[in-house]
Amino acid sequence: MHILVTNDDGITAPGLLALAQAMQPLGKVSVFAPDHNWSASGHVKTLHRPLRVKETRLADGTPALTTDGAPSDCVALAVLGIVEPLDLVVSGINPNANLGHDVTYSGTVTAAMEAAIWGIPGLAFSVETPEDHQGAVDYSTTAAVARRVAEQVIAQPHPRDLLLNVNVPYLPESELKGYRITRMGLRIYRDALVRREDPRGRPYYWIGGDAPTGVPDEGTDIGALANGYVSITPLGLDLTAHGMQAAIRNWDWPKA
Question: Are 71 and 8 in contact (CB under 8 A)?
Fold first, then answer.
């Protein structure tokens, strides 16, 4: 069993180290992550410039590779031959939850998605650290959850393009209510445009605003976390809105 560990927070992120350590009892582990933070980068494939790859080590001495590319580049480079053939890709641990439509923005999730595109199971792990949390993030519970989820994926039959988005409450492992298989919930974004001026009077902009919230409906990832459960959401690569096809066919299209 050869497991690739990656993330979107960069090679020095403590969540990456925690995830790599959690995977080590399960097989051979290769670590390949970006050389800087790519949070909210979405699904990126770098085609118009060369990618540099360097050898490095994690804080515990574990050998690792890093690149100036995106999280999904790390997976693509690994699959294309930078490392030996892979059986599983795990991404994280992200210090904030990736819920609802966050999956389209998240480098953590899209790194796992890149694995699924190549026919390799991809697992994304995030912990819902409280917004007002001070000090270092405790990744121990999420690392334990990641190992349990990976063990199940290794042991159970599954499709080659399996893609799981796993979110964990910020609780001691003993206080978790359990595991729930969920659907994507409704994320509510509260972005705001912030306009400022540089010293020469020229405008520049930030996308600011308050942190997103969500609707904690039963059966959703948001609802599971709100009730103290680990949320495991299977995601599909087919984004077709099948339910809309019939209605759109009836629009006034030009005749051939």
Answer: yes
Whether the CB-CB separation of 2 and 85 falls below 8 Å is answered with yes
For the chain, the helix, strand and coil percentages under 3-state DSSP, each to the nearest 5 = 30, 30, 40
Cα distances (angstroms) measured from residue 105 to each of 63, 88, 92, 196, 229:
29, 22, 14, 25, 23
Handedness of CA 92, 218, 181, 118 (dihedral sign): negative
Strands 63-67 and 53-57: antiparallel
Residues 6 or more apart whose CB falls under 8 angstroms from that of 6 comprise: 16, 31, 32, 33, 71, 74, 75, 78, 89, 90, 91, 111
- The whole-model pTM stands at 0.94
Classified as helix, coil or strand, 177 is: coil
Q: Which domains does the chain have, with CATH numbers?
A: 2-185+216-240 (3.40.1210.10)
- Contact indicator for 124, 164 with CB cutoff of 8 Å: yes
Determine the Cα–Cα distance for residues 171 and 124; give it in Å rounded to an integer: 19
Q: pLDDT digits over 59-111, tens only?
A: 999 999 999 999 999 999 999 999 999 999 999 999 999 999 999 999 999 99
Contact call for residues 228 and 176 (beta carbons, < 8 A): yes
